[in-house]
Amino acid sequence: MGFPIQLTFRDFASSPWIEERVRDKALALSRLSDRILGCHVVIECRHHRHRKGNCYGVRLELAVPGSDVVVSREQRHGSQDLAVTLDEAFAAARRQLSDRHRRRRVSYHAPHVALTS
Question: What is the CATH number of the domain that holds 80?
Fold first, then answer.
């Protein structure tokens, strides 16, 4: 993997399994696209709930040439696992990268029409 990963935790302590999961997901993205220059993941505990569990939010920013890929995901309810929210954020980023790659490939291979007047 040729890009730096920055991981920020807000309102709760970091965890080795979260750090490893983010690294694994970023590695999977690097196999999809070699144009990623950097990755910044912010994980925050948005609501501290005693009975229903904490609600987490994930913001993923991928620096790529052109405009950055930015994805935000929030748990729908406290019973949803943080790992699921991380997976959803990285899946959305993977779809955006795939769409960009497909659009770039189509525009590169599109037939050029010569205008004559």
Answer: 3.30.160.100
Domain total of the chain? 1
Q: Are strands 69-74 and 5-10 parallel, antiparallel or unpaired?
A: unpaired
pTM of the predicted model, to two decimals? 0.81
Beta-carbon contacts of 15 under 8 Å, excluding residues fewer than 6 positions away, are: none
Find the helix or strand (DSSP H, E) in which 21 lies.
helix 16-32
In a domain, 117, yes or no: no
* pLDDT tens digits, 60-74: 999 999 889 999 998
**Structure token digits, residue 88:** 């959803």
In a domain, 115, yes or no: no
Quick check: 39 and 26 in contact, CB under 8 A? yes
Q: What is the pLDDT of residues 64-115, one digit of tens each?
A: 998 899 999 988 666 678 899 999 999 999 999 999 888 877 665 556 555 6
What's the distance, CA 103 to chain centroid?
19
Q: Exposure string (b/e) for 90-112, b if CB count within 10 Å is 16 or more?
A: bebbbebbeebeeeeeeeeeeee
